[in-house]
């Protein structure tokens, strides 16, 4: 059965995953969250995929939780209906634990859990019209989808606290100043710019990227001594790859390396 709310396309080793509820600013309903998780897991398991591009259709990247469905759950006494544990946490882990680089193309508003999805990605390219809003406290909730972890590591504790407590929208220009996004481009140029970045990553050493993602995550909450040990293990694993051997030979021959992803 095909997905209704999430499009998934693989071209030139790039899996493009598009949130597709444009009339609702790509706000997340339960079915859509399941489809997104499945698309990410499919990309992770596909050996032909070497980079992932996550974006939204229409004028928004993702407005976060669909509040109409949320209100229905509240009125029915279901509370959050366990969506954080069942949906959001697995989605964020699928992004952060994927052994492939993930690029977010933020084409418009990214709010609440929608912003957190972008924060979980490895790189973020934003349209100059994009905005980020930590909308949780505005409806009496705490952050979820890893925002309390990812945001302060991107912008620092002070800026993260300001964004999370006040919930005021952050423009694309301010997001670039804070280090929240990798680059900002005119809205009309976003698809091309994001695809070029994903294509560059798709042509790179996939296993080295996976090791780099793992090292960064591990180092953020382990000691230097522990991190040094992991780095040694990761280097041993990378040194045994075909990509490392061929790239070393290319470097010595003053040639450009060609990576195969293995």
UniProtKB/TrEMBL annotation:
Broad enzyme group: isomerase
Signal peptide, first to last residue: none
A Pfam family matched in the record: ECH_1
Enzyme Commission number(s): 5.3.3.18
Entries under InterPro entries matching the protein: ClpP/crotonase-like_dom_sf, Enoyl-CoA_hydra/iso, Enoyl-CoA_hydra_C
Any one GO molecular-function label of the UniProt entry: isomerase activity
Record bears the keyword Isomerase: yes
Keywords: Isomerase
Domain of life: Bacteria
Family note: Belongs to the enoyl-CoA hydratase/isomerase family.
PANTHER family: EG:BACN32G11.4 PROTEIN, ENOYL-COA HYDRATASE
Protein name, UniProt field: 2-(1,2-epoxy-1,2-dihydrophenyl)acetyl-CoA isomerase
Naturally occurring in which organism (per UniProt): Thermocatellispora tengchongensis
């Amino acid at each position: 059965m095909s997905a209704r709310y999430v499009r998934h396309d693989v071209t030139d080793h790039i899996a493009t995953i598009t949130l597709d509820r444009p009339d609702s600013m790509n706000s997340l309903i339960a079915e859509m969250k399941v489809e997104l998780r499945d698309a990410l897991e499919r990309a992770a398991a596909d050996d032909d995929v070497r980079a992932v591009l996550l974006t939204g259709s229409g004028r928004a990247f993702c407005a976060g939780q669909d509040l109409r469905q949320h209100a229905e759950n509240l009125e029915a006494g279901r509370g959050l209906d366990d969506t954080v544990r069942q949906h959001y946490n697995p989605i964020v882990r699928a992004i952060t634990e994927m052994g492939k680089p993930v690029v977010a193309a933020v084409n418009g508003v990214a709010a609440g859990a929608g912003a957190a999805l972008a924060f979980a990605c490895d790189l973020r390219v934003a349209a100059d019209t994009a905005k980020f809003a930590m909308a949780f406290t505005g409806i009496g909730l705490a952050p979820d989808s890893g925002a309390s972890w990812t945001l302060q590591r991107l912008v620092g504790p002070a800026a993260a606290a300001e964004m999370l407590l006040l919930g005021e929208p952050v423009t694309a220009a301010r997001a670039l100043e804070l280090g929240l996004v990798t680059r900002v481009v005119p809205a009309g140029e976003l698809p091309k710019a994001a695809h070029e970045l994903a294509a560059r990553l798709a042509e790179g050493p996939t296993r080295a990227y996976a090791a780099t993602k793992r090292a960064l995550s591990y180092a953020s909450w382990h000691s230097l001594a522990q991190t040094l040990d992991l780095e040694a293990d990761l280097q041993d694993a990378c040194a045994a790859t075909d990509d490392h051997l061929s790239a070393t030979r290319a470097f010595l021959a003053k040639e450009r390396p060609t990576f195969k992803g293995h």
